Amino acid sequence: MSSSCSHAPVAVTASQEYTAKAWAVLKQRGLRQTEPRKQIIDALAELLGPTSAYDLRDMLLERHKKADIVTIYRVLECLEANGLVHRLLTRPGGVVRCQLPSEDECHHAESSHHCHHVLVCQCCNGVQELHCPGVGPLIAYAEKESGYTVQTHYLEFAGLCPQCSTL
Amino acid sequence: MSSSCSHAPVAVTASQEYTAKAWAVLKQRGLRQTEPRKQIIDALAELLGPTSAYDLRDMLLERHKKADIVTIYRVLECLEANGLVHRLLTRPGGVVRCQLPSEDECHHAESSHHCHHVLVCQCCNGVQELHCPGVGPLIAYAEKESGYTVQTHYLEFAGLCPQCSTL
DNA sequence: ATCATTGCAAACCGTTTGCAGCCTT
DNA sequence: AAGGCTGCAAACGGTTTGCAATGAT
Questions:
Q1: Contact at 8 Å (CB) between A126 and A6?
Q2: What are the sequence ranges of the domains in chain B?
Q3: What is the per-residue pLDDT across B69-101, written as a single tens digit (0 to 9) for each?
Q4: Which of A38, B13, B16, B117 sees the fewest Cβ atoms within 10 Å?
Q5: Under CATH, what is the fold of the domain A15-165?
C-alpha cells in the first residue's frame, strides 16, 4: 500500500481541517479522545493517498508512536462508521481519509454510503474524490434494463493522475 | 456466499451453452480436460449467483466429488484468466460465471477486463450482467473533472432482483 | 467511579507456495 | 514420454475475538 513514487503531503490547512472535522464528529458522538485515535487521525490527515492498517502502524513507528495493530483496525472501523474514511474496493484493506464533505453536509442521495467516488493513481497512489452526477442516469438505465431495484452502487476509477500522466 | 433464499437453477440450455463454451475456450488454449475442471465448470454452469472456492468445494462434496481447495483456487484462476468467470469486487473471493459473450466476441472497449458490469441481488444472491453504454461519458466526465487518465473502472450494483423486489 | 478503549495472545479465515506424484495429451 | 495438473502440507497475510488492564470522562 505504501506509495512507490513520492507524493507531496497535503497542504497544512487541508490537513488541519481534517483533524478538526474528525474530532468534531467523534466528540459529537460521545467518542473519547485517545492517544491512538489522535495518532491515526493525524497520520491520515497528512496522507493524500490510500493506506492500510499496517502502513499506519509503520508510519506511527517512524514517529516513535506505537499502536497495536488491533487498535488500528478498531480505530479505522470507528472512523469508517463515522464517515471519516473510505474503504477502497480495489485494494483490499485500503482506506483513504474522506476529503469531501460528508453526506450530512451534501445531499446527493445517489449512494447509500458516500455520494462521491474515488480515482486512484496507479503510479503514485494518489487519490482524488469526485462527485459523479452521471451516476444517477446510469443507475436508472441499469434498473430499466434489468428490472432490478438498485440499492447501492460501487464505482472506482484507476488510472494516472495529472502529474504521473506526463512522465 | 451461499444463497439465503432459494434461487432457481439456470435453464438447461443456458447451462449447456456455458460448459460448451468453456471447453471450447480451454481446448483452444491447449488446456487439459481434467476431472476437477469438469466438476467446477459444471457446477458454475448450474449456478446463477455468485459462489466462492469453498462454496464450490461443498457443492462438489454434496455430489460425492472431492476436489482439493487448492485445486479449486487454481481452476478458478484459470477460468478467470480465460474470461469464463468474473470476480466480484464487493464480495471478496466471490466469483460468477460470465453469462454474456466474452470480449473477444463483443467490442466495447470500455473496460480493460470485461465490457460489462454486474448486478447482485442482496436477497437471493442472483446475478445479472449488463452492458452499460453510459459508462463511457461518465469516464470522460471523471477525466475532465480530475485531470486523471482513467485506465480502468470498477462498477458493481447491489439491490433487489425483479422477483425479490415484490416480496 | 464508570465504562469506553486499549494491548496482548491467540484464533481464524481465505489464499498462496513448494513439491512429489498422477494423468491428459 | 513429457509436462500440465492435482493433492497434500505447510506457510502466509490480513483480520477478528476474548479478556484483563488502562485511561478518558
A1: no
A2: 15-165
A3: 999 999 999 999 999 999 998 888 999 998 766
A4: B13
A5: Arc Repressor Mutant, subunit A (1.10.10)
